[in-house]
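Quick check before the chapter quiz. The format below is the same one you will see on the exam, so make sure you can read both the input and the output lines.
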Amino acid sequence: MAQKNSSFKAPLKSSDIFNRSLIRSRRELIARSFSDYDFLNREISERLIDNLHDIKMSFKKILSMNLCDDTIRTYFKDMFLINQNMAHKMLDGKYGKKVQADEDFLPYKNQCLELIISCLTLHWINDLPGALIQIRRSLKPNGLFMGAVYGGETLFELRASMLKAGIDIRGGITPHVSPFMDIRDAGTLMQRAGFSLPVVSTERITVNYKDAFSLMKELKNMGENNALIKGFKGLTSKKFMFAVAEKYQQDYGNEQGRIPATFDIIYLKGWAPHESQQQPLRPGTGKIRLKDALDLKPKSS
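Here is the expected output.
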């Protein structure tokens, strides 16, 4: 039985981008069928664990945010593991200690965990810097955080097609696809949150679909459809949706008549500070002078 945490139900703020209550309710609705559409979650979970194999440390107290359950059972079955999700039904039958909690309000004591892994959850956060700070504070010194988030080029084909259709049908631009983190900002966010030795990398995964309708259906069943507070509030007409599909096919369709969908994945890794970690030298303590490395001799003409 998952432990419910009701303390995270905060009211919407004027600075919020995403409707977190809507995201949560959608995940409750798709929970039973999610395993039929979790291919990306499974793939990224495996890739996160592959990176973990390169680290010669053992972790006993672990927090999983949205890791695939098969991955958890394979690699963490003999460890103390907390399995967290913002939707209560998404935790049914899952491995480990189950906690319903929002990534915006982590219910853990400071310095109580040794490893935190987040798989494709942080892109829906309204206060991402604050969430990363909470993650770092929850880690013991020399504890590790690993995460995967959708990057800025994710679904750029769908975004462009909706933009063109919106101009043609509605005479203006209305956001239908959520904004994503830019790779150039990821390292800065990790440093601001206080992580030591941050590492950021990216990869692109392309998935082919029969048409735009198949893609959008899959996104809905993955719980990844639009949750922007300032997004389009009216009913989406068939005329608009057919225009999106047509422009998608015209601009991006391949020779087989299928369309590509790009998922840009950004991987984050950082450590809670500890005295055993490598530290930069203090200014003025270097043993090599700069002028010894510079060629200051005048060049002959």
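If your answer matched, good. Strands lie at 61-65, 80-85, 97-100, 113-119, 139-150, 196-209, 259-271.
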